[in-house]
User: What shape does this take?
Amino acid sequence: MPDPFFQPVSGFDLPRFAGIPTFMRLPHVPPGHPRFAEVEIALVGVPWDAGTTNRPGPRHGPRQLRDASTMIRAENGANGIRPFEAANCADLGDVGPNPADTADSLDRITAFYDGLVGAHIRSLSAGGDHLCTLPILRALARNGPLGLILFDSHTDLYRSYFGGQLYTHGTPFRRAVEEGLLDPARMVMVGIRGTAYDREDRDFADANGIRVVAVEELHDRGIADVMTEARGIVGQGATYVSYDIDFVDPAFAPGTGTPEIGGPTSWQALLAARLLRGVRIVGADLVEVSPPFDPSGGTAFLGVSLMFEMLCAMVDPAG
Ligand code: MN
Ligand code: MN
Assistant: This one.
Protein backbone atom coordinates (compact mmCIF):
# COMPACT_ATOMS: atom_id res chain seq x y z
CA MET A 1 0.00 0.00 0.00
CA PRO A 2 1.56 3.34 -0.97
CA ASP A 3 2.02 5.75 1.92
CA PRO A 4 -0.67 8.48 1.69
CA PHE A 5 1.81 11.05 2.99
CA PHE A 6 3.93 10.72 -0.16
CA GLN A 7 1.03 10.95 -2.64
CA PRO A 8 0.55 14.13 -4.65
CA VAL A 9 -2.51 16.25 -4.06
CA SER A 10 -5.12 15.05 -6.55
CA GLY A 11 -6.96 17.45 -8.82
CA PHE A 12 -10.07 15.52 -7.81
CA ASP A 13 -9.61 16.82 -4.25
CA LEU A 14 -8.18 20.29 -4.78
CA PRO A 15 -8.22 22.06 -8.15
CA ARG A 16 -4.79 22.11 -9.68
CA PHE A 17 -4.62 25.91 -9.74
CA ALA A 18 -5.05 26.01 -5.96
CA GLY A 19 -2.57 25.36 -3.18
CA ILE A 20 1.17 25.89 -2.82
CA PRO A 21 2.92 24.61 -5.97
CA THR A 22 5.45 22.02 -4.91
CA PHE A 23 6.93 19.83 -7.64
CA MET A 24 4.11 17.63 -8.98
CA ARG A 25 2.02 18.54 -5.88
CA LEU A 26 4.18 16.31 -3.69
CA PRO A 27 4.78 16.93 0.02
CA HIS A 28 7.53 19.40 0.94
CA VAL A 29 10.10 17.39 2.90
CA PRO A 30 13.28 19.44 3.35
CA PRO A 31 16.34 17.96 5.06
CA GLY A 32 15.57 17.83 8.78
CA HIS A 33 11.90 17.03 8.25
CA PRO A 34 10.78 14.08 10.43
CA ARG A 35 10.03 11.96 7.36
CA PHE A 36 13.17 12.91 5.39
CA ALA A 37 14.73 9.47 5.90
CA GLU A 38 11.77 7.82 4.18
CA VAL A 39 12.23 9.75 0.93
CA GLU A 40 13.47 7.56 -1.93
CA ILE A 41 13.46 10.05 -4.80
CA ALA A 42 13.98 13.75 -4.13
CA LEU A 43 12.78 16.48 -6.45
CA VAL A 44 15.12 19.41 -5.93
CA GLY A 45 15.32 22.91 -7.33
CA VAL A 46 18.71 24.45 -8.09
CA PRO A 47 17.93 28.11 -8.81
CA TRP A 48 21.34 29.20 -10.01
CA ASP A 49 22.62 30.40 -13.40
CA ALA A 50 26.00 31.97 -12.73
CA GLY A 51 27.48 29.71 -15.42
CA THR A 52 25.43 31.31 -18.17
CA THR A 53 27.55 32.84 -20.94
CA ASN A 54 24.79 34.42 -23.01
CA ARG A 55 21.09 35.00 -22.25
CA PRO A 56 20.43 34.48 -18.51
CA GLY A 57 17.36 33.45 -16.57
CA PRO A 58 17.44 29.78 -15.51
CA ARG A 59 17.82 30.86 -11.87
CA HIS A 60 14.07 31.47 -12.14
CA GLY A 61 13.50 27.96 -13.52
CA PRO A 62 12.60 25.96 -10.40
CA ARG A 63 9.81 28.32 -9.39
CA GLN A 64 8.18 28.31 -12.83
CA LEU A 65 8.72 24.57 -13.22
CA ARG A 66 6.99 23.95 -9.89
CA ASP A 67 4.02 26.03 -11.02
CA ALA A 68 3.82 24.22 -14.38
CA SER A 69 4.20 20.85 -12.63
CA THR A 70 0.76 21.21 -11.06
CA MET A 71 -0.45 20.10 -14.52
CA ILE A 72 1.13 16.66 -14.02
CA ARG A 73 -1.17 13.82 -12.93
CA ALA A 74 -0.24 10.63 -11.11
CA GLU A 75 -0.26 8.09 -13.95
CA ASN A 76 1.78 7.91 -17.13
CA GLY A 77 -0.80 7.73 -19.92
CA ALA A 78 1.46 5.76 -22.25
CA ASN A 79 2.67 2.93 -20.04
CA GLY A 80 0.56 3.08 -16.87
CA ILE A 81 3.51 3.72 -14.56
CA ARG A 82 2.43 5.40 -11.32
CA PRO A 83 5.75 6.71 -10.00
CA PHE A 84 4.42 8.14 -6.74
CA GLU A 85 3.16 4.71 -5.71
CA ALA A 86 6.34 2.96 -6.81
CA ALA A 87 8.66 5.12 -4.69
CA ASN A 88 8.39 7.71 -1.93
CA CYS A 89 8.84 10.97 -3.83
CA ALA A 90 8.99 14.42 -2.25
CA ASP A 91 9.89 18.02 -3.02
CA LEU A 92 12.96 18.78 -0.91
CA GLY A 93 12.88 22.46 -1.80
CA ASP A 94 15.72 24.45 -3.32
CA VAL A 95 19.44 24.40 -2.80
CA GLY A 96 20.31 27.92 -1.65
CA PRO A 97 23.05 29.25 -3.97
CA ASN A 98 25.28 32.28 -3.48
CA PRO A 99 24.56 34.31 -6.62
CA ALA A 100 27.62 36.48 -5.98
CA ASP A 101 30.16 33.65 -5.63
CA THR A 102 30.48 30.79 -8.13
CA ALA A 103 32.91 28.67 -6.11
CA ASP A 104 30.79 28.97 -2.98
CA SER A 105 27.66 28.04 -4.93
CA LEU A 106 29.35 24.95 -6.38
CA ASP A 107 30.32 23.86 -2.86
CA ARG A 108 26.84 24.53 -1.47
CA ILE A 109 25.23 22.41 -4.17
CA THR A 110 27.67 19.54 -3.66
CA ALA A 111 27.10 19.66 0.12
CA PHE A 112 23.34 19.41 -0.37
CA TYR A 113 23.66 16.36 -2.63
CA ASP A 114 26.24 14.80 -0.30
CA GLY A 115 23.41 14.75 2.21
CA LEU A 116 21.16 12.93 -0.23
CA VAL A 117 23.82 10.38 -1.12
CA GLY A 118 24.43 9.76 2.58
CA ALA A 119 20.70 9.14 3.07
CA HIS A 120 20.50 6.87 -0.03
CA ILE A 121 18.09 9.24 -1.73
CA ARG A 122 18.16 9.50 -5.51
CA SER A 123 17.52 12.91 -7.03
CA LEU A 124 15.64 14.46 -9.90
CA SER A 125 16.74 18.06 -10.10
CA ALA A 126 15.45 21.16 -11.84
CA GLY A 127 17.95 23.85 -12.84
CA GLY A 128 19.33 26.28 -13.10
CA ASP A 129 21.82 26.37 -15.95
CA HIS A 130 23.93 23.40 -16.97
CA LEU A 131 26.81 24.25 -14.66
CA CYS A 132 24.49 23.00 -11.87
CA THR A 133 25.14 19.45 -13.03
CA LEU A 134 28.86 19.54 -12.14
CA PRO A 135 28.50 19.98 -8.35
CA ILE A 136 25.72 17.36 -8.34
CA LEU A 137 28.06 14.89 -10.07
CA ARG A 138 30.78 15.67 -7.53
CA ALA A 139 28.46 14.30 -4.85
CA LEU A 140 26.97 11.40 -6.77
CA ALA A 141 30.25 10.06 -8.16
CA ARG A 142 31.91 9.64 -4.77
CA ASN A 143 32.07 5.87 -5.23
CA GLY A 144 33.43 5.90 -8.75
CA PRO A 145 32.78 7.39 -12.15
CA LEU A 146 29.25 7.31 -13.55
CA GLY A 147 27.86 6.76 -17.01
CA LEU A 148 26.10 9.71 -18.63
CA ILE A 149 23.24 10.12 -21.06
CA LEU A 150 23.08 13.77 -22.11
CA PHE A 151 20.26 15.27 -24.14
CA ASP A 152 21.45 18.63 -25.39
CA SER A 153 22.11 20.59 -28.55
CA HIS A 154 25.61 21.27 -27.19
CA THR A 155 28.30 18.98 -25.80
CA ASP A 156 29.17 21.35 -22.92
CA LEU A 157 32.68 19.92 -23.27
CA TYR A 158 34.56 23.17 -23.91
CA ARG A 159 37.78 23.76 -22.02
CA SER A 160 37.16 27.38 -20.97
CA TYR A 161 35.51 30.68 -21.81
CA PHE A 162 36.65 34.31 -21.72
CA GLY A 163 40.34 33.61 -21.36
CA GLY A 164 40.44 30.88 -18.77
CA GLN A 165 37.09 30.78 -16.98
CA LEU A 166 36.74 27.05 -16.32
CA TYR A 167 33.28 27.05 -14.74
CA THR A 168 30.48 27.92 -17.16
CA HIS A 169 27.45 26.10 -18.52
CA GLY A 170 29.54 25.25 -21.59
CA THR A 171 32.17 23.33 -19.62
CA PRO A 172 30.58 21.03 -16.97
CA PHE A 173 31.20 17.73 -18.70
CA ARG A 174 34.81 18.65 -19.56
CA ARG A 175 35.43 19.28 -15.85
CA ALA A 176 33.51 16.13 -14.89
CA VAL A 177 35.71 13.97 -17.12
CA GLU A 178 38.90 15.67 -15.88
CA GLU A 179 37.80 15.13 -12.27
CA GLY A 180 37.07 11.47 -12.88
CA LEU A 181 33.35 11.85 -12.16
CA LEU A 182 32.28 10.32 -15.47
CA ASP A 183 33.57 7.33 -17.42
CA PRO A 184 34.10 8.54 -21.01
CA ALA A 185 33.52 5.03 -22.34
CA ARG A 186 30.03 5.15 -20.81
CA MET A 187 29.07 8.63 -22.02
CA VAL A 188 26.69 9.44 -24.85
CA MET A 189 25.58 12.92 -25.97
CA VAL A 190 22.46 13.08 -28.11
CA GLY A 191 21.11 15.89 -30.27
CA ILE A 192 24.25 17.96 -30.84
CA ARG A 193 23.82 20.64 -33.50
CA GLY A 194 24.05 24.27 -34.50
CA THR A 195 26.81 26.65 -35.38
CA ALA A 196 30.05 26.30 -33.45
CA TYR A 197 33.09 28.35 -32.50
CA ASP A 198 35.37 25.48 -33.47
CA ARG A 199 35.67 21.71 -32.98
CA GLU A 200 37.66 21.77 -29.75
CA ASP A 201 34.79 20.14 -27.82
CA ARG A 202 34.25 17.47 -30.45
CA ASP A 203 37.97 16.76 -30.64
CA PHE A 204 37.99 16.22 -26.87
CA ALA A 205 35.06 13.83 -27.21
CA ASP A 206 36.80 11.90 -29.98
CA ALA A 207 40.09 11.74 -28.10
CA ASN A 208 38.35 10.34 -25.03
CA GLY A 209 35.96 7.95 -26.72
CA ILE A 210 32.80 9.88 -25.82
CA ARG A 211 29.96 8.99 -28.19
CA VAL A 212 28.38 12.05 -29.80
CA VAL A 213 25.15 11.59 -31.75
CA ALA A 214 24.64 14.67 -33.89
CA VAL A 215 21.08 15.68 -34.61
CA GLU A 216 21.45 14.73 -38.27
CA GLU A 217 22.13 11.13 -37.24
CA LEU A 218 19.31 11.29 -34.69
CA HIS A 219 16.82 12.35 -37.36
CA ASP A 220 18.12 9.77 -39.85
CA ARG A 221 17.96 6.82 -37.45
CA GLY A 222 15.06 7.84 -35.24
CA ILE A 223 14.78 8.23 -31.47
CA ALA A 224 14.17 4.56 -30.67
CA ASP A 225 17.22 3.26 -32.51
CA VAL A 226 19.53 5.86 -30.98
CA MET A 227 18.14 5.21 -27.50
CA THR A 228 18.80 1.49 -27.92
CA GLU A 229 22.42 2.37 -28.63
CA ALA A 230 22.53 4.81 -25.70
CA ARG A 231 21.25 2.18 -23.27
CA GLY A 232 23.94 -0.17 -24.55
CA ILE A 233 26.70 2.40 -24.04
CA VAL A 234 25.87 3.02 -20.38
CA GLY A 235 25.04 -0.64 -19.77
CA GLN A 236 23.93 -1.74 -16.31
CA GLY A 237 26.29 0.51 -14.38
CA ALA A 238 25.28 3.57 -12.36
CA THR A 239 24.27 6.32 -14.76
CA TYR A 240 23.36 9.99 -14.58
CA VAL A 241 20.86 11.50 -17.01
CA SER A 242 21.11 15.19 -17.85
CA TYR A 243 18.43 16.80 -19.97
CA ASP A 244 19.07 20.29 -21.33
CA ILE A 245 15.76 21.71 -22.56
CA ASP A 246 17.61 23.16 -25.58
CA PHE A 247 17.75 19.57 -26.90
CA VAL A 248 14.19 20.29 -28.05
CA ASP A 249 13.57 22.44 -31.10
CA PRO A 250 12.94 26.10 -30.17
CA ALA A 251 9.55 25.88 -31.89
CA PHE A 252 8.54 23.80 -28.85
CA ALA A 253 10.98 25.12 -26.26
CA PRO A 254 11.81 28.76 -26.96
CA GLY A 255 12.29 29.56 -23.27
CA THR A 256 15.99 28.85 -23.01
CA GLY A 257 19.19 30.82 -23.32
CA THR A 258 20.96 29.10 -26.18
CA PRO A 259 18.39 27.67 -28.63
CA GLU A 260 19.42 25.78 -31.77
CA ILE A 261 17.10 25.07 -34.66
CA GLY A 262 16.50 21.69 -36.30
CA GLY A 263 15.90 19.78 -33.09
CA PRO A 264 13.42 17.13 -31.94
CA THR A 265 9.73 17.84 -31.51
CA SER A 266 8.11 17.73 -28.09
CA TRP A 267 6.86 14.23 -28.93
CA GLN A 268 10.35 13.00 -29.85
CA ALA A 269 11.70 14.65 -26.71
CA LEU A 270 9.19 12.78 -24.55
CA LEU A 271 9.92 9.51 -26.30
CA ALA A 272 13.66 9.88 -25.70
CA ALA A 273 13.03 10.23 -21.96
CA ARG A 274 10.53 7.36 -21.95
CA LEU A 275 13.11 5.08 -23.55
CA LEU A 276 15.44 5.54 -20.58
CA ARG A 277 13.65 2.59 -19.00
CA GLY A 278 16.17 -0.10 -18.23
CA VAL A 279 18.95 2.35 -17.34
CA ARG A 280 20.22 2.31 -13.75
CA ILE A 281 19.62 6.00 -13.09
CA VAL A 282 21.26 7.28 -9.90
CA GLY A 283 20.23 10.86 -10.56
CA ALA A 284 18.79 13.05 -13.28
CA ASP A 285 18.22 16.70 -14.06
CA LEU A 286 16.33 19.04 -16.34
CA VAL A 287 18.17 22.28 -16.88
CA GLU A 288 18.25 25.55 -18.82
CA VAL A 289 14.57 26.48 -18.72
CA SER A 290 14.67 30.28 -18.68
CA PRO A 291 11.35 31.84 -17.65
CA PRO A 292 12.20 35.36 -18.93
CA PHE A 293 12.27 33.81 -22.44
CA ASP A 294 9.20 31.65 -21.76
CA PRO A 295 6.29 34.09 -21.51
CA SER A 296 3.71 31.44 -22.49
CA GLY A 297 5.01 28.98 -19.90
CA GLY A 298 5.06 26.29 -22.58
CA THR A 299 8.76 25.53 -22.20
CA ALA A 300 8.33 25.00 -18.46
CA PHE A 301 5.38 22.69 -19.06
CA LEU A 302 7.44 20.65 -21.51
CA GLY A 303 10.27 20.64 -18.98
CA VAL A 304 8.19 19.19 -16.16
CA SER A 305 6.60 16.71 -18.55
CA LEU A 306 10.12 15.48 -19.34
CA MET A 307 10.88 15.35 -15.61
CA PHE A 308 7.82 13.14 -15.13
CA GLU A 309 8.99 10.78 -17.89
CA MET A 310 12.45 10.59 -16.29
CA LEU A 311 10.84 9.91 -12.92
CA CYS A 312 8.86 7.03 -14.44
CA ALA A 313 12.09 5.58 -15.83
CA MET A 314 13.77 5.95 -12.42
CA VAL A 315 11.08 3.93 -10.61
CA ASP A 316 10.92 1.22 -13.27
CA PRO A 317 14.53 0.23 -13.93
CA ALA A 318 13.56 -3.16 -15.29
CA GLY A 319 12.01 -1.52 -18.34
MN1 MN B 1 23.75 22.16 -21.84
MN1 MN C 1 22.54 23.26 -24.58
Notes: The radius of gyration is 18 Å.
